[in-house]
Amino acid sequence: MPQPGDPVRRTGKKRRINLPNGRLATVKLTDDRDYTARLDVSLGDRRWVFGVRQDDSAEYLAGYENGERTALDCPDWLDHVAEKTGLEGFDA
After folding, report:
1. Contacts 24+ apart (CB under 8 A), 59-64
2. 5, 80 in Cβ contact below 8 A?
3. pLDDT above 80: residue 48
4. C-alpha R_g of the chain
5. Does pTM top 0.90 for this prediction?
6. What is the spatial distance between Cα 41 and Cα 66, in angstroms, rounded to a whole number?
7. CA end-to-end distance (rounded Å), the chain
8. Is 68 exposed, middle or buried (0-12, 13-18, 19+ CB in 10 A)?
9. β-strands 89-91, 68-70: how paired?
10. Where are the beta strands (DSSP E) in the chain?
């Protein structure tokens, strides 16, 4: 059974990652036709969607708040998510 903080490297896997502020973010990696994978990161009523490139960097594609698409700033704790998922980083 996956534990919070386990690396997310295979598509179709959902994990909860402990953030430095004590909250838990949900991270899901899925297949994507335009990128190596698609990464969804959720915290509360917000969700950030990224396309993962072959070099393991992630490009910001969309943000959602309360289920509605909106422009969201990328929070500082995404660096922690990158470290825990094995990504090189996020491009906002």
Report:
1. 59/35, 59/91, 60/90, 60/91, 60/92
2. no
3. yes
4. 12
5. no
6. 14
7. 32
8. exposed
9. unpaired
10. 13-18, 24-30, 37-43, 46-52, 57-65, 68-70, 89-91
